[in-house]
Design goal:
The complex is a heterodimer of chains A (182) and B (815). By secondary structure, chain A is mainly beta. Chain A has three helices and ten strands, in the order αβββββαββββαβ. The chains are: A mainly beta (182), B mainly beta (815).
Chain lengths: 182, 815
């Protein structure tokens, strides 16, 4: 029985010795992309068109806020660039740099919906010579109409590929903008 | 001199159709032979006293008659042409204490004779009869040492499928969780050498941290009735027990080797036991498994390899009046998660579901890349017991478990090699049990348990913690008693009370906190507010009462009946309370609820068992009615920058699960055995009048085996495993906008795959070497026809098919 008591004593000491730590530290996720800004610079050097989606609570219940600053003109071509930001940190973190550093693991795809016709092609490549797509151009825009233009950033897609359908990988960000062509 | 007759009686069963066996038996056994001549038969079955398994090759002799009979492989024996007289019978068996009994024959007589098998094994069962049964009124299914050895490469979830009513929910082929009568996860407790395994058992993608090879026998109790261990296991309890050691100076061991074509890998298990006549014993055991990518019939399932390194050590002293045991176990797994399952958006899901093949295939490799899991479970158990004269036995145990779980995701930048989930769960448990049998007719057990658990989710992952920091305190106490009403009736009753307190520190996303109105309901628990997060201190207490009452009735020597009614209560687990965010591996947002109460299960189970000659049948219908059943249900579609996700919220409802399990073992011709196993169940959400999700479809297994004991136990067997299509599932499909097609498209996450039929082949042969070692060589083929199929209960079913053909070679050496 003596053994039994000693035993119980040791065990209870282990219980008591577990004290509570301080408050856990907050995690600010570094890889989250909250914001995508697409800047379209028109060939006539008139006002840029900015397409923006922003979701500051990430996977939280609030939906992203999507804005389109203006219409596109059928007569022009546009030089485009895509920027990814994490705005949960201050100052905001530019994720585009990481995407471009790991260019072989990323690609931006463009999907032109019905109602509009345009040709969107990547103008920058990854280190393997395949399209990266953070820079692109838009030309051959058809006459007036309206429709959807979607940008998709895939992580670890198959390269080279023939487009979104066979690229695989997983989607880091996907945003659809309502575009009006004058 | 001795005239050994290995007698089989076939005509009892020739005309019997399986479903009517029980009834026919009742009729047959009531027939009496009134002849006064020397034409009486004396027959019976020899069984192991402890687990009622049949004992073959027992010698039954009648004093004065020069006739010895050996029991057959079912333990059956029969003397014919005996006269009306008194006989003295002696029953002996190589490994048992001989037993004598007198019979007064004036008619045909049938008897079950129980022998004290393994008489040299010192264990309290010798004193307490069959008290090693965890519940006397719930049927206890057993996975024997032989089955474990033959399948040592398997995991717990797969090996348990040898029992009717058990299926599994899988995430790929290496993460296999047992389902007992439709329930899994926190509703199924798993005990490894009396230690209730504490890991993050709540998620589907978390495999139980246990190496089956540290156990000698595994028992399954389908229900919450084993109150000594838990009151919350409303699905059931799985109990893995180490071997009982011989009470003699001995050194013995075994080495098991496995090689499999699927996964191109192998396993090695070795176990060494040293025992002494004075009661000291120690066992050392280790398992190593290494597999590369597994394959479906048509393609390689990339990144599905795994590495398993496990070891256990046991030392102790086993005396009648006192003893102790010290047990250490370490389980280390590294498991790859199918690359093609790593999806992010609903659009990705549509691509996968609509594809006939797999979205991503790479060359075969042994490398395990992200996404993957690394899980470590270390366990220390220490136990002492002492027997007090006239009172019973007191046992004190202390367990410490350290569980570490790392989940690696495909990440970017500096975090590339950092785990995205890093959970550390520490559990201390102190248990005191008293076990006494005051008389043959009445025994009584009671005990108390105290437990402290701490969960630490490491913030260095850089990913928000789904499961928060928490401390959990548990206190439980139980009383169980068995009363033998008369020779044939036994009454069991038990009651258990559990108090559980969880004290968490959780960061909520502010938008969610406000969206759920928690900022009004739970404003008192806010510790501090940051710009976009709120630190809170939720505390919840749960008081759970569980009871069991049951009857065991011996109808006659071959038939028995068990009836049990158990009420179990389970407190919600941390993921049900606290989840809040995107669950990457299932591409959905999962939300818990702070306000949940305990769920309560009322289960009634009936077991009819018939054991006679060459037939063993168990028939087990049950109904489980659960109030406040916690389940996860899709509620809406949420837009994020990544695209649309389905939101799944944990909810409480009332549910009812009923079903029938049946096992049949029928030795229809000499050396040939038919083994059938049927599991059928229906699960209904009674509040919403909808089927419950993830309920196992009807499964029907039939195996015909041939064993020749005279030729090295040569075995050949073919098993048919038919799984029906699950027609009852809730429709959780949803529609999302897919940019590539410019349309709203249906995401069919609900539909069940088609029925499938698998054939499995087994063969083995025993070889003995000169130095008394026994070698068993086995060749088996699973999915013989390389059938391409999908399993409703595999979470990866939308992304890939299940395993293709696997040719396996086993070499088991006992020395």
């Amino acid at each position: 029985m003596k053994k039994l008591y000693t035993y119980a004593l040791i065990s209870s000491l282990i219980f008591v010795s577990c004290s509570k730590d301080d408050d856990p530290v907050a995690v600010n996720e570094e890889e989250v992309i909250t914001t995508m800004i697409v800047t379209l610079v028109p060939s006539d050097a008139s006002t840029n068109v900015t397409l923006k989606t922003q979701d500051l609570d990430g996977d939280g219940p609030n939906a992203p806020v999507v804005t389109v600053s203006g219409n596109l003109k059928a007569s022009l071509t546009y030089a485009g660039s895509v920027k990814f930001l994490n705005e949960t940190t201050t100052p905001a973190e530019d994720i585009t740099e990481e995407v471009e550093e790991e260019s072989n693991d990323h690609q931006v795809f463009y999907t032109v919906g019905s109602g509009i016709t345009m040709n969107v092609v990547s103008t920058n490549n990854d280190s393997g010579g395949n399209p990266l797509g953070t820079k692109f151009k838009i030309d051959n825009i058809s006459s007036a109409g309206s429709g959807k233009l979607t940008f998709t950033l895939r992580h670890k897609p198959k390269k080279p590929n023939t487009g979104l359908a066979d690229a695989g990988g997983d989607t880091d960000i996907e945003a659809t903008f309502d575009i009006v062509i004058e | 001199m001795s005239n050994f007759i290995n007698f089989r009686k076939g005509n009892f069963n020739l005309n019997m159709k399986l479903p009517f066996l029980i009834f026919c038996f009742l009729v047959l056994s009531s027939l009496e032979n009134h002849s006064q001549n020397c034409s009486y038969n004396f027959s019976g079955i020899v069984m192991d006293l402890h687990d009622e398994s049949s004992l073959s090759n027992a010698v039954i002799s009648i004093d004065g008659l020069d006739q010895n009979i050996l029991s057959d492989e079912n333990g059956f024996f029969e003397f014919v042409g005996l006269c009306q007289s008194n006989y003295k019978i002696t029953i002996s068996h190589l490994k048992c204490k001989s037993k004598s009994l007198s019979i007064n024959l004036n008619g045909n007589l049938e008897k079950v004779i129980k022998l004290e098998h393994h008489i040299n094994e010192l264990n309290e069962v010798i004193v307490l009869g069959d008290s090693n049964k965890k519940s006397k009124t719930i049927y206890e299914s057993k996975i024997s040492k032989e089955i474990i050895d033959d399948n040592f490469n398997s995991n717990l979830g797969d090996i348990l499928k040898n029992v009717s009513g058990i299926s599994s929910i899988n995430s790929g082929n290496s993460i296999v969780k047992p389902i007992i009568n439709g329930l899994y996860g926190s509703r199924v407790d798993i005990l490894n050498n009396e230690v209730n395994i504490q890991d993050q058992q709540w998620g589907i993608e978390h495999a139980p941290s246990i190496d089956i090879n540290s156990a000698a026998n595994i028992y399954v109790i389908k229900g919450a009735g084993a109150l000594q261990y838990s009151g919350s296991a409303i699905g059931g309890i799985v109990i893995a027990e180490p071997s009982k050691n011989l009470l003699k100076d001995s050194l013995y061991g075994k080495t098991l080797m496995y090689g499999g074509s699927n996964g191109k890998g192998g396993s090695l298990m070795s176990k060494l036991t040293r025992t002494y006549e004075n009661g000291w014993f120690s066992t050392l055991q280790g398992t190593l498994k290494r597999f590369g990518d597994f394959n479906a019939p048509d393609y390689i399932m990339s990144n599905t390899g795994f590495i398993d390194k496990s070891a256990s050590f046991q030392i102790g002293l086993n005396r009648f009046n006192y003893g102790f045991e010290f047990f250490l176990s370490s389980v280390n797994n590294e498991i790859g998660i199918l690359s093609a399952s790593h999806l992010h958006t609903a659009g990705d899901q549509i691509r996968a579901i609509n594809s006939d093949s797999i979205l991503y295939v790479d060359e075969f490799t042994y490398n395990i890349n992200a996404p993957k899991q690394k899980v470590t479970h270390n366990l220390i158990k220490s136990k002492i017991y002492k027997r007090f004269q006239g009172f019973g036995k007191a046992t004190l145990q202390y367990h410490f478990q350290n569980n570490k779980r790392l989940e690696f995701d495909i990440r970017r930048g500096i975090n590339k090699n950092t785990a995205s989930t890093d959970l550390r769960l520490k559990t201390h448990t102190l248990i005191i049990d008293f076990d006494s049998s005051f008389s043959d007719k009445f025994d009584f057990k009671f005990g108390i348990k105290g437990e402290f658990q701490n969960n630490f989710p490491n913030p260095e992952t850089g990913v928000r913690r789904i499961i928060p920091d928490y401390d959990k305190y548990d206190f439980g106490s139980y009383v169980i008693s068995n009363i033998k009403l008369n020779k044939n009736w036994l009454l069991e009753g038990g009651i258990r009370f559990d108090y559980s307190k969880i004290d968490a520190l959780k960061y909520y996303r502010k938008s969610f906190w406000e969206f759920r109105n928690y900022n009004k309901i739970y404003k008192n628990i806010v510790v501090k507010e940051l710009s976009n997060q709120v630190l809170t201190n939720p505390k919840r207490n749960f008081n759970n009462l569980s009871t069991t009452i049951g009857l065991s009735k011996k109808i006659n020597i071959f038939n028995s009946l068990l009836l049990n009614y158990s009420i179990g209560s389970r407190a919600p687990n941390p993921s049900e309370l606290f989840s809040e965010g995107l669950h990457h591996s299932s591409a959905r947002i999962e939300l818990g609820d702070l306000s949940f109460s305990s769920e309560k299960s009322h289960k009634v189970g009936l077991t009819l068992s018939h054991i006679k000659n060459n037939v063993r049948i168990t028939f087990n219908p049950y109904i489980n009615s659960i109030t406040d059943f916690i389940f996860i249900n899709p509620t809406e579609i949420q837009q994020t920058v990544r695209g649309s996700f389905q939101v799944w919220e944990y909810m409480q409802t009332n549910a009812r699960i009923w079903g029938i399990d049946s096992d049949i073992n029928y030795n229809f011709i000499e050396k040939f055995t038919l083994k059938s196993q049927i599991s059928f169940l229906k699960g209904i959400d009674t509040t919403n009048e909808e089927p419950l999700i993830n309920m196992p479809p009807l499964n029907f297994k039939n195996e015909i085996s041939y064993v020749n004991p005279k030729f090295h136990n040569f075995l050949l067997s073919i098993q048919s495993d038919y799984t029906f299509k699950q027609n009852d599932f809730p429709n959780n499909n949803f529609e999302v906008f897919v940019p590539t097609t410019g349309k709203m498209e249906l995401v069919d996450v609900s539909s069940s795959p088609e029925a499938y039929h698998l054939l499995n082949f087994r063969s083995s042969i025993d070889l003995s070497t000169e130095n008394k070692s026994k070698i068993k060589i086995g060749l088996s083929i699973n999915n013989l026809l390389d059938k391409s199929y999908k399993n409703y209960l595999n979470r990866m079913r939308n992304y890939s098919h299940d395993l293709g053909r696997n040719i396996m070679l086993n070499i088991n050496v006992n020395y």
